[in-house]
Every structure is written in structure tokens, then in C-alpha cells.
Amino acid sequence: MMGALGPSRPVAAGPASFAEALAALDWDREAESIRAKTAADVERALQGGRARSVEDFKALVSESAAPYLEAMARAAQESTLRRFGRAVRMYVPVYLSNVCHNRCRYCGFALGNEIPRVILTDAQIRAECGAVRAMGYRHVLFVTGESNEVRLPYFLNALSLARPIFDHITLESQPLDEADYAALGAAGLHAVSLYQETYRRATWREYHPAGNKSRFEWRLGTPERAARAGIRKFGLGVLVGLEDWRADSVLALRHLAFLRARHPRMEFSISFPRMRPAEGGIEPKVPISDREFVQLMCAWRLADPCVEALLSTREAPAFRDAVFPLATTHLSAGSRTNPGGYTCGDGVLPQFESGDERSAAEVAGMLAARGYRPVWKDWDASLSGPP
Ligand code: SF4
């Protein structure tokens, strides 16, 4: 089996941080080098028997790869089956708070939007956790906005409430410092998820004009702080379509390669949250079609056979059912994206409308009917050593 992008591959060992590595790269040159890829580059990238490079990934996400989609899909599906078998891990978000001090232009939770704001109480957290546990889940993803009210003490309390209920807990919230991640890891947090949204430094402030999220480098350094704090798994991703998704994906792959080289025992996942037209009031700068989305997923699988890949309920049922075998290792189902959404959140705006309203049981049934095994918890932490 081909390995993931290896430590000596594509990022030089030199830079002390990924921020430093990124500063040495030029966004426009990256985008231009993707546009310059040819059919011969794609055919070379598709040849098996060796680890693929960032240059191969560029070819696979380029427009020149469009005619090769069926070959990419076949190779990606074979790779996914070889590495992950027919097990698909089920995950579900529990939104703890929609209070946010940022003004991301693509998000309904942004500060200044006149919506009911909620921070779940202990009783509400217990109720939400109980509701998703009753759906079958033993792994939960806690999601919050970024605010001073919802920080380390709140997270530690939420963890203490959830630990008796779940085997595995992931947190998707604001970037924290190393000491906070260490405290959360010691309290039983298994994984952190935080999407960079875009790696394009020059336009960052257009989308993130105020609040902590306007600090590009602080966000960029989050996986490194979490890794140094001993967090076992980190979820990366970009908001697909916010900027040129091809260039953003190449930079996300470079980020992953940098992290793998320095934290070889850490596990990583990649998500593909696709920006919807008019979400939060702005249009995707570079829309991505369904075929291009499949191309992107397959390119990731071919470039990194070991990375876990998540497919959320942003996507529609027929599309999810058709494409999950190609690259996906984790599917969400029955998701609610408003705080209290499973028990008490009537009238609270969701962060995004679900494209797949099926219940967790229905999605699990679909998987079983296709010969796949739904797994209700994430990888057992006891199976992986320290990062
Ligand atoms: S994307 Fe996150 S940080 Fe930005 S406004 Fe929405 S909840 Fe806040």
C-alpha cells in the first residue's frame, strides 16, 4: 500500500512553523502552477506504486483531471477499501453555544446578526448528550461559537458531563493556547477540529474583519499548539468555495504534510464543508460543481491514503449515498446545527441548513444495505499510543 505523504515530502524540514512555511509560498504562484498542470501530469499522478507528491495532488485537482474522474474514483475507492475496509464511522455535532464575537461574513452566528443567543446550561447539555446517545452515538462533536463566555472552564465542565456518556469527544471551537489544550486533553478530550477556512492571507480580513478570528496566524498555528499539548487527533479543512478551492486544498495538503512530518503519531482528518450560495449573505468566489467536489475528495484520498475524510449533512442524500465509498471514513447523520437542536432549541437559528434530513438510523440502514458497517464511536483511543 502506498503510504501517506511522508516526512521528507513536500515541505522542507526548515521552517519552525507552518506559518513560516506558508509565508514563503505565493498564493498566486500556487494557483498558477495548478492551472499549468497537463493531462500528462494527471496520468503520471494516477500511476500507482509510489507515494504521491504535492505536485501530483495539484495535477489531480486541476481542470486537466476532469476527463479522468472515473479513473480517479476507481483508484480512490480501492485505496479507501484497502485502508479502512467497509467500516464507516458515524458522528454527530452537539452545538453548545451560538454566542460569537467574530464577524465572519459567511456565517449566520456572526456578531451583529440579530438572532437569539444561547449557551446551554448543564441540564441542557445533559439532555442533548442523552438525545444523541439514544440515537446510537458513542462519539460526539461539541461545537461552539467563539466567545469569552465559552472558554476553558465551560469546556471542562461540558467534558465532565459528557465523559460518562460518550467514548470519544471532539471539540470544534475557538483556537486555544497550548496550556488550555493540555488541560482539555487531561480531562478526556480526544480530538480537536478547526478549519482554516482559507489559506489566502491577503483576503483573510475581508471575510474575518473583527474578533479573534481576524488573527490569521493565531488560527493557523492551532494544530501545532494542540499537537504539542498532546491532543491525539486534529481535523483540518477549508470552506470550499470561499476562495479558489484548488489552491486552498493544495495549501491544506501542505499543512497536513508539515504536521505529519513533525507529529508522526498524531492522527488527522479532513473535511469538505462546501459553501452554499448566499450562505451568510455572500456568494462562493469559486463555486464547485458536484463533479469537481468528487474530484477533490478523490484527489485527497489518492494523495494521502491514511487521512480520515468526513462528509457532513451539508450535502444531499442522493449525493452522499453515491460518493461516500470513494473516500469517506466518517458520515454525520441526524445532525442539528443549533444549540439545543435535539431537545430544546426551537426558534434558534441553525448555523447551516442540513441538506440531508434523514435520521441516524436511516443513514445507518443505507450503509448496511450497501454492505458497509456503521460504527458509532471513533477509533478507540486505547489503540493509539501517545502522539
Ligand atoms: S464561523 Fe464560527 S467564528 Fe465565524 S461567526 Fe460563525 S461561529 Fe463565529
Write the layout of secondary structure elements.
Layout: H1 18-23, H2 27-35, H3 39-46, H4 54-61, H5 69-84, E1 87-91, E2 93-97, H6 122-134, E3 139-144, H7 152-162, E4 168-172, H8 178-186, E5 191-193, H9 204-207, H10 216-220, H11 222-228, E6 233-237, H12 245-262, E7 267-271, H13 290-303, E8 308-311, H14 317-327, E9 330-332, H15 360-369, E10 373-375
Parallel strand pairs: 1-9, 1-10, 2-3, 3-4, 4-5, 5-6, 6-7, 7-8, 8-9
Task: Sketch the major β-sheet.
Answer: 10 strands, parallel
**Strand ordering within the main sheet:** 2-3-4-5-6-7-8-9-1-10
Strand content range:
5-15%
CATH superfamily heading: Aldolase class I
List SSEs in N-to-C order.
HHHHHEEHEHEHEHHHEHEHEHEHE
How many H/I helical runs? 15
Descriptive notes:
This protein is of the alpha/beta class. It has a single domain (19-383), classed as TIM Barrel (Alpha-Beta Barrel), CATH 3.20.20. Helix content is 39%, strand content 11%. It contains 15 helices and ten strands. It has helices spanning 18-23, 27-35, 39-46, 54-61, 69-84, 122-134, 152-162, 178-186, 204-207, 216-220, 222-228, 245-262, 290-303, 317-327, 360-369, and strands at residues 87-91, 93-97, 139-144, 168-172, 191-193, 233-237, 267-271, 308-311, 330-332, 373-375. Strands 2-3-4-5-6-7-8-9-1-10 form a ten-stranded parallel β-sheet. β8 (308-311), α14 (317-327) and β9 (330-332) form a beta-alpha-beta unit. α2 (27-35) crosses α12 (245-262), α6 (122-134) packs across α7 (152-162) and α13 (290-303) runs parallel beside α14. The longest helix has 18 residues, at 245-262. The protein is globular and about 60 Å long. The two termini are 23 Å apart. The relative contact order is 0.18. The model is unreliable at 6-12 and 381-387 (pLDDT under 50). Iron/sulfur cluster binds next to loops.
